[in-house]
Each structure stands twice: as structure tokens, then as C-alpha cells.
């Protein structure tokens, strides 16, 4: 059986690195979307810091801008042409933190940028990759979207607005894929997760208490990949108590 591959969009961020660690630990390959060589080096630095035993040679990097309408579509074209490896899983974790409040004080260029990065990039990724996964028909296909608590609790300004849009995107995607081969899930993160090196340097969380290493949070995605019962669900993570085997998830919709 061929080794599966996870396409990671937003790969150089805290959750992107965590996702890559999870994929490698689960004996899968990674196709990581980065903006430039500096981002590629950043990924390798943080993955290696977290676990030197991980096979980073199993990561294929491709440069693309997911905030552009056809950024990820270009990646799909290269996959179809055989220039990049085929993939069976997608994890989208693109976002931008903008804390300014009240939001009516945010200038419109900043508003549009945050919406472009925090929402549109994730939608563009879904729009480009979901049809590809469906066309491949792999019964193990998954699509995972990270969201956060800002959208429900009303903090983090315009970033919270993007989260609200992502909640709805997840609802629609769960419904649309109820009868496809894609197992779509939302990971609702209400806890501070950061690069291992950052937590080692300062474990304090800006939300209060202590944060979690990306390598520890990786267990959540490992479980999602392994457990087909987690489907069309919101996986809620509020802290270490929600790590497997105590992972909390619930169907997004009554289908």
C-alpha cells in the first residue's frame, strides 16, 4: 500500500508545524505549502527541534500563496502533472491575528487583509482541494480546518470575525461532504499552542496559565487521521485534559 500524504496549508505556523509532526509520526508524507525559502527553513527548524528522529526527508515543499485566488490551484495543477506527490489529506491552518478593538477603529485595508488571510485563504484551499480529493475517490480522504474560540467569545477584533466565517464554512463543508469520500472535521482550539522552542523558552500563555508544545498538540491530529468515527465533527480542545484518549468531538450538524 502506498504511503499517504498530507497537504498542509499554513505549514510554517504553530499549528502547521504541529500538523507536520503528527503526519510524520503517523508514517505519512507531507506536502507543505510555504511562501518562500525562509518559511521552509523555519518549518524544518521547528520540526527538528521538536523531534530529531522525525524523517524530514519525507516533507516535500512547494512555494505558493494561499491568499491568492489561484494560489493552491497552482499546487493542484502540479500534482496532476506529476511534478508534486499525490495527497489524500488536507489540513488548512491559515490565519492572522489582529487584536485592535473596537473593530470600528480598524482601517479598511487592515480589515480586508485579515479577512483575506484568515478566511478567504482557507476557502480558496477548500475550493481547490475538495474537488481533487473527490475525484481521486480515496476512502481514507480527510479535510481538517482549524478554528478558534475568538469567534464565539468576541475577543481578538477582526480575527474573531474571520473565525465566525470559518465556523459556517465548516458547517457547509460537513453537509456537502456527507455523501462523499471526504471526512471533514473542524478543530476548535481554545488553548495556547506554540512551537516547542517557544514554550521551552517561556511556557506562559497570553491567555493565562501555561501553553502547550506543538509536538504535544500533534496527538489531536494523529487521532483524527486514525479514527474514522471522527467525521463531520467539531473536535474541541480546551487544554491538556482534551488530549487523546480523552479527545472531545461532536457532530457539527444533524444530517
Key terms:
single chain, 255 residues, eight-stranded mixed sheet
Structure, described:
This protein is an alpha/beta fold and 255 residues long. Helix content is 42%, strand content 18%. It contains eight helices and ten strands. Helix 1 packs across helix 8, helix 3 packs parallel to helix 4 and helix 4 runs parallel beside helix 6. It is globular, with a radius of gyration of 17 Å.
Tell me the number of helical segments per DSSP (H or I, 4 or more residues long).
8
Helical residue percent band: 40-55%
Q: Strand order, biggest sheet?
A: 3-2-1-4-5-6-9-10
Q: Please tell me what the overall shape is.
A: globular
The Rg value, from CA coordinates, equals: 17 Å
State the order of secondary-structure elements, H for helix, E for strand.
EHEHEHEHEHHEEHEHEE
Low-confidence stretches: none
- Main sheet properties: 8 strands, mixed
Query: Could you give the count of β-strands?
Result: 10
Head-to-tail CA distance between termini: 33 Å
Amino acid at each position: 500500500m502506498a504511503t499517504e500524504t498530507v497537504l498542509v496549508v499554513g505549514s510554517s505556523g504553530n499549528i502547521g508545524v504541529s500538523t507536520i509532526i503528527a503526519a510524520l509520526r503517523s508514517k505519512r508524507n507531507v506536502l507543505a505549502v510555504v511562501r518562500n525559502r525562509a518559511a521552509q527553513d523555519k518549518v524544518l527548524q521547528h520540526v527538528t527541534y521538536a523531534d530529531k528522529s522525525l524523517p524530514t526527508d519525507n516533507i516535500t515543499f512547494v512555494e505558493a500563496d494561499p491568499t491568492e485566488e489561484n494560489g493552491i490551484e497552482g499546487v493542484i495543477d502540479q500534482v496532476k502533472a506529476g511534478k508534486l506527490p499525490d495527497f489524500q489529506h488536507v489540513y488548512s491552518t491559515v490565519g492572522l491575528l489582529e487584536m485592535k478593538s473596537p473593530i470600528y477603529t480598524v482601517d479598511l485595508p487592515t480589515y480586508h487583509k485579515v479577512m483575506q488571510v484568515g478566511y478567504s485563504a482557507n476557502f480558496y484551499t477548500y475550493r481547490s482541494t475538495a474537488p481533487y480529493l473527490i475525484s481521486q475517490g480515496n476512502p481514507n480522504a480527510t479535510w481538517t480546518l482549524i478554528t478558534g474560540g475568538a469567534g464565539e467569545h468576541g475577543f481578538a477584533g477582526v480575527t474573531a470575525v474571520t473565525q465566525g466565517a470559518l465556523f459556517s464554512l465548516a458547517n457547509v463543508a460537513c453537509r456537502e461532504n456527507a455523501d462523499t469520500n471526504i471526512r471533514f472535521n473542524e478543530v476548535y482550539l481554545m488553548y495556547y499552542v506554540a512551537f516547542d522552542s517557544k514554550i521551552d523558552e517561556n511556557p506562559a500563555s497570553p491567555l493565562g496559565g501555561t501553553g502547550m508544545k506543538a509536538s504535544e498538540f500533534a496527538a489531536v491530529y494523529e487521532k483524527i487521521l486514525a479514527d474514522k468515527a471522527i467525521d463531520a465533527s467539531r473536535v474541541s480542545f480546551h487544554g491538556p485534559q482534551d488530549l487523546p484518549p480523552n479527545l472531545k468531538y461532536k457532530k457539527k450538524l444533524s444530517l
